[in-house]
Specification:
Layout: H1 3-7, H2 10-19, E1 22-24, E2 34-37, E3 55-61, H3 73-80, E4 84-86, H4 96-105, H5 109-112, H6 134-138, E5 143-148, E6 166-169, E7 180-182, E8 189-191, H7 196-212, E9 218-223, E10 230-231, E11 237-238, H8 283-313, E12 320-326, E13 331-332, E14 338-339, H9 345-348, E15 352-355, E16 363-365, H10 373-382, H11 396-399, E17 410-415, E18 422-428, E19 432-436, E20 441-445, H12 463-476, E21 486-487
Parallel strand pairs: 3-9, 3-12, 4-16, 5-6, 5-9
Antiparallel strand pairs: 1-2, 2-21, 4-15, 7-8, 10-11, 12-15, 13-14, 17-18, 18-19, 19-20
Helix pairs in contact: 3-8, 7-8
Protein name: Sulfatase N-terminal domain-containing protein
InterPro entries: Alkaline_phosphatase_core_sf, Sulfatase_CS, Sulfatase_N
Keywords: Glycoprotein, Hydrolase, Signal
């Protein structure tokens, strides 16, 4: 356990978070002299051992765009139409391992140690398995099962996170759909003639059936590989393969990215370094990748359907929360970029839907939720207490239809394999997206420029805006717990004329 966690008990943290609802500061914080702290944890809704405690199933995809959900009719019908959709949810560290570490710990990378997929600060090796939130549920009497992709680099000889009753994680061939190995809850098995989504689906439903036959509630995580591109164990890379019944779907489908003004942006010379000097992407190649991704997601869509059917057959659907999201978004040619691990809207944005007891069917929320908020939410929904300080806010009040105070500025960041492990780190507000690596910076006014085509970081009209956002950035890059969830107050707007990129 880290030093700060050794010195502060979980009980003291709960008291501290509950007590410090407001804090006064001096100086300019972007147009206001006060900073309000938003409470980061809620009291348990049920005592451990209470048979009325709900179950929770968490379905995660890999590299799924927010608009991909429009091509998953079963998931939309059974989850979004029967629950709440968060229409402004983001992955604030949009890369596989950092995103998954946030989901495993409820903390940002500066606190959980996972800043990238590789290197000294990357992958499973950078995560302390003892700081994995499944222990919260295990210690509160929940049965727990994990199925699917965990963090890159996890292997058969690595320590199994202690809180899982069942542990069936991908190992060798973690990015392959047809040649892969899984831990098998202590009985490792290699699959060479099966489809990974179908295996994850089967093992998830098996865990639900077994758990539902007992008197104890359960938490099941089903973390899928789709629609991530395929990497064979030998290193070959290609589009994700689909099951036979899906291989003729979406022929001629127009990628949603084509309708974004940022697609193949005409001039990227003012963009941050990771978008600058790029050639325009091939429409044919983007179309082919988009088609393959949508085809691969159809098996996940059916897996969601069979999961709901299994819960219903076992008589536990009405007492189970089902959460669906992705570890990050994905760019398909916006700003001439294909991929992730950059701080643009299409990479940050993820689908997030929740169905369960007390959640109004067909409801939506524009709360700026993040993946970091989900562990705190899971704890509140199941009535368990986090065993360490978490950086997110529970979304439970919003799910219950209540008006919920929330932070007005969200930390966003990316890492690198070298040096201190950090690349661009910034903040996202309702209007602005801002970030810097110390020398290379960007600032988008999303009110006037929703497609993030004009980097106004050096525009004199935004000098005060940049100063205020930089203050917030510097405070949040070292945040922990409730300091990550501040209401800084209003920001200044641009002054004088505003520069515009020629069309």
């Amino acid at each position: 356990m880290r030093a700060w966690a050794q010195s502060i008990t979980a009980a003291l943290l709960v008291v501290l978070v509950a007590t410090l609802a407001t804090v006064s500061t001096t100086g300019d914080s972007g147009g206001t002299g006060s900073v309000r702290m938003v409470q980061g944890t809620q009291s348990p809704s049920a005592a451990p051992g209470d048979a009325s405690r709900p179950n929770l199933v968490f379905v995660l995809t890999d590299d799924m765009r927010d608009d991909d959900l429009d091509h998953m009719p079963i998931t939309r019908r059974l989850l979004a139409d029967q629950g709440m959709e968060f229409i402004d949810a983001i992955s604030p560290h949009p890369l596989c391992c950092p995103a998954r570490a946030q989901l495993a710990t409820g903390q940002y990378a500066q606190n959980n140690g996972v800043q990238h997929n590789r290197g000294e600060h990357g992958g499973f090796a950078a995560l302390d398995p003892a700081d994995e939130a499944s222990v919260w549920f295990r210690d509160s009497g929940y049965q727990t099962a994990f199925v699917g992709k965990f963090l890159n680099g996890y292997g058969p000889h690595d320590v199994r996170p202690a809180g899982w009753t069942r542990w069936d994680a991908l190992m060798r061939g973690v990015y392959d759909y047809v040649d892969f190995s899984m831990t098998g809850d202590g009985d490792p098995r290699r699959y060479t003639d099966s489809y990974v989504t179908s295996v994850i689906e089967d093992h998830t439903n098996r865990a639900v059936r077994d758990f539902a036959r007992t008197d104890d509630p359960f938490v099941v995580y089903a973390w899928h590989l789709a629609p991530h591109y395929r990497i064979s164990p030998e290193g070959g890379r290609g589009h994700p393969p689909a099951l036979p019944q899906d291989r003729e779907l979406f022929v001629g489908e127009r990628p949603a990215a084509f309708d974004d003004p940022a697609f193949n942006e005409s001039d990227v010379s003012d963009q941050p370094s990771y978008l600058r000097n790029r050639k325009q992407v091939s429409r044919a190649e983007v179309t082919a990748e988009n088609t393959a991704r949508l085809r691969a997601l159809q098996a996940v869509d059916r897996a969601v359907g069979s999961l709901v059917e299994t819960l219903d057959e076992q008589g536990v659907l009405d007492e189970t929360y089902i959460v669906f999201t992705s570890d990050n978004g994905y760019s398909l040619g916006e700003h001439r970029f294909v991929g992730k691990d950059v701080l643009t809207d299409e990479v940050l944005q993820v689908p997030l839907v929740v169905r369960g007891p007390g959640v109004a069917p067909g409801s939506t929320s524009d709360l700026p939720a993040t993946l970091v908020d989900l562990p705190a939410t899971f704890a509140a929904l199941t009535g368990v207490v986090p065993q360490w300080q978490v950086d997110g806010l529970s979304l439970a009040p919003t799910l219950r239809g209540e008006v919920q105070p929330f932070r007005d500025t969200t930390l966003i960041q990316t890492g690198r394999t070298l040096g201190d492990g950090w690349s661009h780190r910034g903040v996202r507000t309702e209007r602005y997206l801002y970030g810097s690596d110390g020398t290379d910076a960007f600032l988008y006014d999303r009110l006037l420029d929703p497609d993030e085509l004009v980097n106004v970081v050096d525009d004199p009209a935004y000098a005060e805006v940049r100063t205020a956002l930089e203050r917030r950035r510097l405070e949040l890059v070292t945040c922990a717990g409730w300091t990550c969830n501040q209401q800084f107050g209003p920001l200044p707007g641009p002054t004088g004329g505003v520069a515009r990129k020629p069309s």
